[in-house]
Amino acid sequence: MVDAVRETERKYEAADDIEPPDMRVRGVGSVVDAGRQRLDAVYYDTADGRLAAAGITLRRRTGGSDDGWHLKFPVGPDVREEIRAPLAPEVPRELIALVRSRVREAPLVPVMELVSERRARGLRDAEGTPLAEVSVDHVRARRPSGAAGRPARWTEVEAELAADGRPKLLDRIEKRLLAAGLRRARAASKLERALAETAPEEAPSGSAPEPAAPAPGTAGACVLDYVREQVEALVALDPAVRRDVPDSVHRMRVATRRLRSCFRSVSPVLDRAVTDPLGEELRRLAAGLAQDRDREVLAERLSGRLAELPPALRLGPVADRLRAEDRARRGGSRTRAIEVLDDPHHLVLLRELDELLADPPLRPAAERPAPEVLARVLRRDVERLDARVGRALELPPGDERDRALHEARKAAKRARYAAEAARPALGRRAKRAARSLTSVQKLLGEHQDSVVARRALRELALRAHTAGEPSFTYGLLHAREAALAEGYERELPRLWRSVHGRLPG
Q1: What is the pLDDT of residues 147-199, one digit of tens each?
Q2: Using CA atoms, how far apart are residues 366 and 215, in angstroms rounded to an integer?
Q3: Which of 63, 456, 476, 479 is most deeply buried (CB count within 10 A of its CB)?
Q4: What is d(CA 452, CA 294) in angstroms, rounded to the nearest whole number?
Q5: Could you give the C-alpha distances from 389 to 410, 440, 495, in angstroms and in order?
Q6: Residue 489 — left, alpha, or beta (φ > 0 → left; ψ -120 to 50 → alpha)?
Q7: Where does residue 227 rank: exposed (0-12), middle (13-18), buried (19+ CB within 10 A)?
């Protein structure tokens, strides 16, 4: 069983004999002695420090009020998300799963032992409600027995907000501490400082030189920067998806699609003999994530349309059936998303993406100026979109046109991603193109959502009829969705003429 807390704190370097100044800053009614504690922590990581490189810490700590395992993810300046699990001899499986995308197959081993002698003071408001805690930590750090390195000692002051504390209080505390001669810690965590101060002398490396990176300003450099950003998103969002953080599935799916689209579009820069197999694995990942996101979109759309109807037109237990259908779909889609992340193929994909970034399969155009190459890539994707929109508009209304419009939507998304990838090279031109393409993608997306909604409403009506429930409301919602789809189809030619003139061509 794990739980999560949001931790907001700041650390300060201090002399060993530090005595913090009076902390009764504005808003603080009293300062109480919270006593002394000894905190013993063992930090875990891979042998090559993959968690530390990402600013993540995993420790087993005894002492204090929160004995147990703590996994901390950086959220923003001074803020980390802490996942807690009960004290146990080994790293809990739930925490291992949350760092799987970082550590891959590498074992988690002890990398640092820290002992902190802490004296804490609690800051409270006039009613006695806890606001923050300011503590002085005398820290001893050493590498595990048998590991190379030297021990280290230091003293730091830590100011941490209570659960409902306001960040401005930290500003006032900091002003008081800086005036007393302290300074903000250069390391973001005790582990970061410990790793630096206990590091052994580096031996000369005998490894082979790394492949030369593309020169700045070239198409290769621009494309690899974009790929690197999306790969990092895949890795960083993995624990968020496992914890069911809102919108995490959608954001991971977008990163997956951006990568796959990029590999298809930038064939003049990256060899498709290497990227096409990766694209197929990315397609598999996106498909596994799609069920959860598609369920979410469908549920929101149907419940929203139902809420628009007057009560007199809502015949039968429609809302209850919609909720029951969503719950049933949700259970299966969540399970499928986790299964995809746990599949060994996923770790292979992440490793191969790392290998691509370490030794990219560059083609001759990678050495050319980025604006020249990426403008041509964007023009090609816009031409593809133009052809698909034209074909869809030539077809009569019906299933075939629906499928053609869906293909146009995918082409609009690909062209938009190409514009986003080209933005560092093309600047405002790419930004304007991405904005214009987003409007086309949104319209086509609404049309596709209507197609999916009508399909779901037909199935719901049949199940309701079989159960002896009125099906009138489902038919009414279906008719409204059909009318909306017709409106989107009428709007598309005008929108495309308006947008097309502003796109590279």
Answers
A1: 788 899 999 999 999 988 888 999 999 999 999 999 999 999 999 999 999 99
A2: 9
A3: 456
A4: 9
A5: 11, 10, 11
A6: alpha
A7: buried
